[in-house]
Fold:
Amino acid sequence: MQAVTETPTVIASRFLKRLHDPSRPVLVFDGATGTSLQQMDLSADDFGGEALEGCNENLVVTRPDAVQSVHRQFLDAGCDVIETDTFGAASVVLAEYGLENKTFELNKRAAELAKEVAMEYSTDDKPRFVAGSMGPTTKLPTLGHISFDLLRDSYQEQAEGLIAGDVDLLIIETCQDVLQIKAALQGIEQAFETSGERRPLMVSVTMETTGTMLVGSDIAAVVSILEPFPIDVLGLNCATGPEQMKEHMRYLTENAPFVVSCIPNAGLPENVGGVAHYRLTPVELKMQVMHFVEDLGVQVIGGCCGTTPAHIAALSEISSELSAAPRNVRSHHHERKALSYEAAASSIYGATPYLQDNSFLIIGERLNASGSKKVRELLNEEDWDGLVGVARGQVKENAHVLDINVDYVGRDGERDMRELVNRVVTNVNLPLMLDSTEWQKMEAGLKVAGGKCILNSTNYEDGDERFFKVLELAKRYGAGVVIGTIDEDGMRLAADQHPARANSAYLDAGDGGIPAREILYDALALPISTGIEEDRRNRAETIEAIRRIREDLPQVHVVLGVSNVSFGLSPAARITLNSVFLHDCCEAGMDAAIVSPAKILPLIKISEEHQKVCRDLINDRRGFEGDVCTYDPLTVLTTLFEGVSAKAARESGPSLSDLPVDERLKQHIIDGERIGLEDALKEGLKNYPPLDIVNTYLLDGMKVVGELFGSGQMQLPFVLQSAETMKSAVAFLEPFMEKEDGERSAKAKFLIATVKGDVHDIGKNLVDIILTNNGYEVINLGIKQDVNAIIAAQEEHQADCIAMSGLLVKSTAFMKNNLQSFNEAGINVPVVLGGAALTPRFVNKDCNDVYEGKVIYGKDAFTDLRFMDALVTAKAKDRWDDRAGFLDGTPDGLSIGVDADPSDSADASPENSSEPTETPDRKLPVTYHRSDAVPEEATISTPFLGASVLQGEDQIPLDEVIAFLDRQALFAGQWQMRKAKNQSREDYEQDLADKAEPILQTWLARAKDEKLLLPAVAYGYFPCGRDGNAVAVFNPEGGAALGRFDVPRQRSGNRYCIADFFRDLKEGQPCDVLPMQAVTMGEEASRFSQELFRKDAYSDYLFFHGLAVQMAEALAEWTHARIRRECGFSDPEAMPLRDIFAQRYRGSRYSFGYPACPNVADSRQQLEWLQADRIGLTMDESDQLHPEQSTTALVALHSNARYFSA
Structure:
C-alpha cells in the first residue's frame, strides 16, 4: 500500500468533529451579510467617510455594533456557521480604499467580533462556528490582472489575521478563476506555517448562468484541479438560485471526494426603486435545497445574495429535520483517497481523464524546443503567436495533453515558460505537461497555468534533492508527475531494473504526498535504429519493463516518448516503426505516449510485411548463419522506405491559407489567429480598400465572435484573443487608411464608468475592448466614479452614449440617482446599464421612468455593440431621437424601456418552472447480458463490405430526397409557423398550404437552379458483433478490430441496448454486419446560409437554413431506405410518408447524441471508417459536424430494433 502523507488538519477541530459526526448533520451557514447591512441604511459617516462608503469591511472598526447585529440575526435564525465581515478584506481589494496597510488588523478584528457573538450562542447540543470569509478579489490572474505571487501573498496576510482572530475554518468563496483558488490555497498554507496552526478549509466556486466559471471552467475541471488539495468542503455559491445549480451539485456529489456545500442566491434579483427583491421565498428556497440534502448528500447549506434571516431560519429547519444522504468523503488528508473521483489532468476549461476509452493518452510533442528546430527558431524570434499556432495545430491532430518544453541554451527559460504558458492556457483547451530538466522553469509555468498540469519529469539521476523538489512542486500546485526510471548511475536498460527503480520512486512519491494514480512512469524509449549491438535489445527490454511496472505497481500509468525509438531513420520509416512500437507498448500496458498524432498510423494501414519487419527490429530477430548476419530487419526497413515520401503524416483539417481571402480574414478574427494575418491583409488590400476590410470582413468576424459568446460557445479569454487579433489587424491597416482616406474617424463615442462605491471592472473593460475593436471611440473612466465625474466627462467628450456598470445591488440605486442627475445637467443621450445585479425589469421600468432619455439593458458587451451599431445606423438615416428612441421601432434583440419584451422579466426565469427533473434510478445495477426481448437473428445479407460514396444528381436525384421531407418539422419546428392558440386544425392546415407551401416551392426551385443543395452520402457495411453493452466493429478487409461503440442499456423494463440488435462475437470474431451512414447537404448550403445572415436577410436566412437542415434529415431517411432495400427489407410499394416517420418499417436508425447512443464523439471514428472526408464531411474538436447540414447514424435491421431511451 502506497501511503500518501499530508500534514493533517488539527484533529481537535470542533468544526470537523461536528462535520464528520456519524449522524451526518446538516450544517447551515448564514445569509447575505451585504444585503443585511444595506437594510440598515448606513450613511457615509458610518463607513468612515465618503471615500470609504461601500467598504463593508471597515465597519468592523467604525460600526462593530452593526456587524455584530447582523451576526446575531442569523444566529437567532438558527444557523450553525457565521462568516466574518471580510469578503473584500484582502490587501489587493482594500487598496482601492487606501486601507491595504490595515489588512491584518481588519481581518483579526472581524474574526474576534464574530467569535464573540458565536460563543454567546454556542452550546454542546448546537455548537456555533465562525468561518473566515475570503472573497475572489477583483483580479483574475488567468487574464493577467495580477501576478500569482502577489495574489498569494495577499491571501496569506488575510489568512494570518483571521487565524489570529481565532476563526474555526477558512472559506475561499465566490471564486471565478481556478488559478485564483490555487494562489489562495498556497497563501493559506503559508499562513498555517507561520502561525503554527491549521484550520479546516472550504472552497466555494461560482458557476455563471453559462454553466461555467467566469474564465470558462466547467465543474469537471473544478473537481480535477482541486482534488489534490487538503480541502474539507467544496461547493457552489452566488450567481444563481438553486435551480441552476442542480446539474453542478449532482456532478459534485457523484465525483468530488469532499463534503459538498450549496449556498445559492434566493433566486435572481428584481430591482424596484433600487432595492433588491429576490423571487424565492424562504419556503421555496428550503424546498429546492432539501432535494440536494436528502437525495444527493449535500451536507453544508446556506444563503448568498438576497437571503435574509427568514431564509436561513427555513434552511435551519432542514438541519433539525433531516440528515444528509450517505456519501463517501475524505475525513482527513493522510491519504488522498480517490473514492469516486477519476484521475485526470485539466485545462482551465475541462478535464481530461488519464485513462482514455479506446485510446492511450495522447501527449502532443511538437511544442518542444529540445526536439524541434522550428520551435527553437520561434523562441529566438519571440514569436509567441507562432508558438501558439503550433499548439493549436496539435488540437486539430486530436492530442489530449500538450507537452511544453522551452529548454534552449542561452535563453531565459523561466521567462520563456511563463510567456508561452500564459498565452497557451487561454488559447488552447488542452491540459499542459510542463517539460524541463530544471524545476524552476516548471514552477514558472505552474504560476500561470490554472489547470491541473503534469510535470515532466523527475528522476534520481541528479540525486535525491531534485527528485523531491519536483514532487514538492507537484504537491503544492496540485499536479501529476512523470518519473523516469533512471538513477545516479545512468540509464537502467534491463527489464528487471526498471521496476526496481520505479518501486523506489513509488514509495518516495507516496511519502511526498503524490498518490499512485498521479504518477506516470517513463520507461525510456531509446533508439534501436543506431545499429550498435548494445542498443539492439533496447525496445524489447522497454516493452517488458512496461509489463512489469503495470503488474507490480497498481494504479500507476506508463508513458513513453515514442519517437525516440526511430531516431536517425527516414521520416517515412519513422512513422511506420513508431506506429508499430506504439501499438505493442499499448498491448503491454502503456496508457500514455508523447507523440505527434499526425505522424502515427493505425495498424490496419500498415501492411503485414512492414509490421513484421518492424517487430523483428523491435525484438531483435536477426537471422544468422554461424556468425554471419543473413537477415537484419534494420537494413530491410531502411531499404523498404528509401525515397518514400512522408506525406502519410499529413495535417488534419483545412488550413486557413486554403480559404478565399475574404473568408480567411474573417476566420482570423473568429479564431483569434494572428499567424498569417499580415499576409492575408496584404492580399486583401489588392482587392479592397482598407476601410472595407475593417468594416466588412473583420467586423463580420467580430460579429460571429459576439454570437458565439452570447450563445455560450466561446469563453471570455477567447473573446479577448479575438479582440486582440482585431486590434493587430486595424493597427496594420491604419497607415494605408491615412494615405488613402485621410484620418480614420470612429463610428461614435461611448463613455463608460463603474459607478460610485463599486470596484468591479471586468465587465466594463470587456465592453471597452469589444467596442474599441469594432470601430468605436471608448472613453473609459474606470471604477468608483461619482456622478459629477461622469457628467464632467460627458460635457468634455460629448459622447453619443453613456454606459454605467456595477456588480453590487447597491450600485443599482446609484445608477438610478445618476439618471436623475443627468436630467438636471441637461444630458439626454442614451444610457446603457449593465452588471450582474441588474434585471431587464428594473432597467426598462424603474430606470426608464426616471430618465428623460432612453435607457438600455446591457446584458453583455455584445448587447452594447448591437445597440451602438443600431444607433449609428439610425442616426445616419435621421431615424433616432434621444427622447423617443428608434423612430422605426426597436431592433430585434435589444431591450429599451417600454418597448422591452415582457418575457425579459425575472418572472420568465427558468427557476419558475415547477417541472420535476428526471433522474435515473441509481439503485438498479447496470447489466451486460442480452435483453430477453431481443433474441439473436440471422446475419443480414449485404451487397458489399466496406465504405461507399454517393453524390451527384445521377446517384442522388434531389427530387427523391425531397419526397422524404418532413413538412411538419420544417414548418412548425424550423420556420416557427405554429398553430395559433384558438386556431382550428383545418384553418392551420389551410394557412400552411396558402403561406408555407409556396415559400417552400420557391426555395426548392431556387436551390435547384443555383445548386444550393448538393447532397452527398458516405455509407457502408462493416463486420461487427455484440460484446456486452458494446458493438465491436472490424476491418472489412481483414479480421483486425477497428474499434467499438459503447452504448447504454436500460436498467429496467425490456433493458434494451443497441448492441443486442446484433449477433454476439464468437471467440472474439464478428458474426454480423453493422450498416452505417453519414450524409450532408454540402458546404454550399452552409456558405449560402451564412451569406444571408451576414446580409441581415433574416427571413431568407430562416427559410433557407431551416430547409437545408430538414433536407439533411430527408437525405438520412432516403439513405436509410436504400440500406433497407439493399439488405432485402424494401418498404411496401407507395408506403405513406407518415408511416416512414412513424417507423413502420423493419429496423431502426440511431443518431449520436440521443439517449440510446449519447456519445456524440463516437461519430469521429465512424467518419474515419466511412472515409467521409471524400464528401467533405468532418468533425471539429468540439464534436460538431461540418458542414452544419449533416447527420450520421448507426442502422440496425433486427426485427425488434426500435427507438428507446436508455
Remarks:
- The first helix runs from residue 14 to 19.
- Residues 1017 and 1079 are 5 Å apart (CA to CA).
- The first strand starts at residue 27 and ends at 28.
- DSSP finds 39 helices and 40 strands in the chain.
